[in-house]
Design brief:
single chain; about 280 residues; alpha+beta; 9-stranded antiparallel sheet; 4 helices
């Protein structure tokens, strides 16, 4: 899943490419309205998250294991009245973000200048769970509906592209070790860029699916210097792993974290490990 260093994990890079981590809980139904979000929840965290932004709401996330994934379907949702808002509550420097919408609670760490050190999972996960508990303690949260349907952990890694053969991005095989570089061709020009998605089922001890891990790689351009990047993202989404909302969320997050850090190393090349300073 992603480069991270936690004692005993056995995966550590001095300079990991990671620039954002996202924690998320989606509820079975709407649990809070805009009034509760702004009038009750924000005052509880405002000292640490004084800045406010409005964003469009995120669509519901879901997983189905009964049929192959549908490709390219467009979804439409009929709505009455104004659409709900997603609120961002930001730390002063913008590196920490709490996101709240009617059916979802999220927490991000991200680089803003591009030089901020990653605080590590062992710091961010307890902070997320503390913020989640604060959110659930609000009187305006519908505790009867506050049942987690899906828990997510996402690691986003912008990796500078190899830029071989004089093309924009070059071959993704220099970053991901399960791809092969293309042999010389006489008709086709050099590969400009590549996009990729893989899905992995996460199953319980009885072999029943309870979530998925997604590995995606897409080309991008860095805003600061127009350098070509491959953004490699690992996202784990699954059901809570224990009784009790907070304990269940923590159980899945800990599992997802282990999958991400070890999985990220397993799918990336020794060339990249050396570049990132594997220790």
């Amino acid at each position: 899943m992603t480069p991270d260093a936690v004692e005993g994990d056995g995966v550590e890079f001095a300079n990991p490419p990671l620039n954002e981590v996202v924690f998320s809980v989606q509820f079975e139904s709407n649990v809070i309205d805009e009034v509760g979000t702004l009038a009750e929840f924000w005052p509880k965290i405002r000292n640490d998250f004084p800045r406010l932004e409005k964003q469009p709401p995120l669509p519901p996330a879901s997983e189905s294991f009964d049929a192959p994934a549908a490709g390219g379907e467009m979804q439409f949702q009929l709505m009455q009245g104004a659409p709900p808002q997603r609120y961002w509550f930001l730390s002063e420097d913008g590196t920490l973000v709490v996101q709240v919408q009617e059916d979802r609670f999220m927490f991000n760490w991200r680089q803003v200048e591009g030089t901020e050190d990653y605080p590590r999972y062992r710091v961010l996960a307890p902070r997320f769970l503390e913020l989640l508990a604060t959110f659930l303690s609000c009187d305006r949260v519908d505790s009867a509906s506050a049942t987690a349907s899906w828990v997510e952990l996402q690691y986003i890694n912008p990796i500078e592209a190899p830029r071989t053969d004089g093309v924009t991005h070059g071959q993704l095989a220099h970053i991901l070790n399960f791809l092969e570089t293309d042999p010389p061709r006489t008709s086709l020009p050099a590969v400009e860029d590549t996009q990729l998605q893989q899905r992995f089922r996460l199953c319980d001890e009885d072999g029943h699916p309870r979530g998925r891990l997604y590995l995606t790689a897409v080309p991008a351009i860095r805003a600061t210097d127009a350098a070509p990047l491959y953004v490699v993202t690992l996202l784990a989404r699954g059901r809570p792993l224990a009784d009790g909302l907070v304990d269940g969320v923590q159980g899945f997050l800990d599992l997802a974290h282990q999958l991400i850090i070890h999985g990220f190393r397993e799918v990336t090349t020794p060339e990249m490990h050396e570049l990132w300073g594997e220790t």
